[in-house]
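Researcher: Predict the fold of Hopanoid biosynthesis associated protein HpnK.
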Amino acid sequence: MTHEARLAQRTLIFTADDFGLHERVNEAVERAHLHGVLTAASLMVAAPAARDAIARAHRLPELRVGLHLVLADGAAFLPRDAIPALVDADGRFDDNMVRDGFRFFFLPHVRKQLALEIRAQFEAFAKTGLPLDHVNTHKHFHLHPTVLGLIVEIGRDYGMRAMRLPCESREPLWLKPWIGLVRDRLDRAGIAHNDYVVGIANTGQMTEGVLLEALAHLPDGVGEIYCHPAVVGEGALTQGMRGYRHADELAALLSPRVEAAIEAAGATRGGFADVFGQAHDRGVQPS
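Model: Structure tokens for Hopanoid biosynthesis associated protein HpnK follow.
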């Protein structure tokens, strides 16, 4: 089927972000894939439970796994002495993305260290032995032109063929022209991408009701619905996730009503490699 033909129908990629952040996340990804509608997961290679996530992914041959690059509000892969301009004493990125965005753009030594870290995370993913289904970034930092340019350049060396385009119907008007520029950049580089996402406006709150509402009003084309499921446990996964409804998001992915709504919408499901016909070692067709 041609790319144009795919765009004329409804195709959905259901992705869980933060794969590897915690075993509670990893368990939810496994359950939602085996018993629900989840088709893909985005791996944080430097996260505390990354090794457990990789082991689970190898046991789930139909789960499409991509790289969730962390360049803000999380742990770096390289040690601090390799990228001192990027991380604090604990080897973590700051959450001041505006400040870091200016530093990435204007300071060559910072940009050089950024490139080293991006390459290190791609290399770490390559060593997992998992096919690279897609690439995205924590908090959509690839909307920054310097970050996007480095990912496109470095990603070529690791077989990157698809990226998330963070384009949601309710995005602010001021952001639309910039999204258009990102789309054009990916198209010129020959990198496949979704037409729209569902998940930005309701981050951490992708409940059954939210999914059913989205599925009732699906546009044509390739959509990515992303979420942050986790099984119930004590305490927040991170400080920034204190209000996230992880268990409700998992329940939504397992919901028979959601599965029925996908069927009623006439949508097929798969990972990026399935949707865009990329070569894939596991060779499973969309469900």
